[in-house]
Design a protein that fits this description.
The chain is globular, with a radius of gyration of 19 Å. It folds into 2 domains: about 190 residues, Aldolase class I (TIM Barrel, Alpha-Beta Barrel), CATH 3.20.20; about 80 residues. It has a 7-stranded parallel beta sheet with strand order 1-2-3-4-5-6-7. Strands 8-9 form a two-stranded antiparallel ribbon. The protein has 15 helices and 9 strands. Helix 1 packs antiparallel against helix 12, helix 4 packs parallel to helix 6 and helix 12 runs antiparallel to helix 15. It is of the alpha/beta class. The longest helix is centred in the middle third of the chain and has 15 residues. Helix content is about 50%, strand content about 15%. The two termini are about 25 Å apart. It binds flavin mononucleotide. The site of flavin mononucleotide has 21 residues, from strand 1 and helix 10. Flavin mononucleotide binds next to strand 1 and helix 10.
């Protein structure tokens, strides 16, 4: 997730026990090929390159394949092609979900990228498309499978459906029935209850967790324990987690990126506080890294009773 799943944040997740597979922020193929001084930050493999998938977003087959080839040589587990991003400035130029509108071009891209990544995994992240069209979705994903995709992640929403709309996990089930490669479901998993209900709708299989991991970097550790032991109360000291996040952010990101990354993290992390909404909105809109850091840490100093968070959901 752009501005969220940078190396520092992934290390924090790793310190709680990690997840099966980490996905990088989307990496712009055009920027990478053009040469950017930030490239080394986007391509850090922490905490474990063997469990890291680099996601590439781009507009032309040539550039995406070149970026995929370079990323595959870093020792990472794999490369993921972003065919799901619906941000207008990316779609307008032919990136993200725009690839879904041209299944032949999408399949050719996967075929070429397949060759380029060699023995690394090659995956694709998709949405439903511009509209709900089950047959079209199945045809496209079958074509991606035939072209060499190792797995597909589906965020089952159309291009225009907003983050607040529930994801339609019945489409994850549909793809699981129609494809032979694994299909990872994504959207709206926030804890044990939502995890179980999404799996009930889609059938067993992989699950990708996005925003909930930004609110609760311990979510994978918590869910693992919860599924194994049944009821469990997972306690964390939010002040310690926040402090550690800032330390890791500073050691894994360039100074230019600190404010945007801290603001985004704070807007999710403050959802752990019963009255954190105003604080989260303020920090999320702030452009000063120092202010975000100081204000969040000061909050825990002045409200010590909020430090201990018990994850239960
Ligand atoms: C801040 C933010 C950045 C995101 N960046 C990406 C991205 O770079 N690549 C991608 O495939 N999806 C991206 N997404 C979408 C998420 O991967 C995911 O599909 C979506 O948030 C739904 O999952 P969730 O309910 O678990 O968060 C982003 C979402 C957010 C909120």
């Amino acid at each position: 997730m752009a501005t969220l799943t940078h190396a520092g944040f992934r290390v924090l997740i790793g310190e709680f026990g990690g997840c099966d597979l980490y996905f990088s922020e989307m990496i712009s193929a055009e920027a990478m090929i053009g040469g950017t001084r930030y490239e080394r930050y986007y391509t850090m493999g922490d905490p474990d390159p063997r469990r890291l998938v680099y996601q590439v977003v781009g507009y032309t087959q040539e550039r995406i394949v070149e970026a995929a080839s370079r990323l595959a040589q870093t020792g990472a587990a794999g490369v993921d092609l972003n065919m799901g991003c619906s941000a207008p400035h990316i779609v307008r130029k032919g990136g993200g979900i725009a690839w879904m509108a041209d299944p032949d071009a999408a399949a050719r891209l996967v075929e070429r990228a397949r060759e380029a990544v060699g023995d690394r995994s090659l995956s694709v992240k998709v949405r439903l498309g511009a509209t709900e069209d089950p047959e079209g979705l199945v045809d496209l994903c079958r074509a991606l499978e035939s072209a060499g995709a190792d797995f597909i992640t589906l965020h089952p929403k159309t291009r225009k459906q907003s983050a607040g709309r529930p994801a339609r996990w019945s489409y994850v089930r549909l793809l699981r029935e129609k494809l032979t490669i694994p299909v990872i479901g994504n959207g709206g998993v926030t804890g044990e209850a939502t995890l179980r209900s999404r799996l009930a709708e889609a059938g067993d299989g992989g699950v990708m967790v996005g925003r909930a991991a930004a609110r609760a970097p311990w979510i994978f550790a918590y869910l693992r324990r919860r599924l194994r032991d049944g009821r469990c109360e997972y306690r964390v000291d939010l002040a310690t987690v926040a402090r550690r996040f800032f330390t890791l952010l500073e050691s894994h990101q360039p100074p230019d990126f600190l404010a945007t990354r801290a603001a985004r993290f704070a807007s999710y992390f403050t959802q752990n506080l019963a009255f954190g909404h105003a604080l989260g909105a303020r920090l999320g809109a702030s452009r000063s890294y120092e202010r975000i850091r100081e204000e969040l840490l000061a909050y825990f100093e002045t409200h010590p009773e909020t430090r201990i968070h018990v994850e239960r959901g």
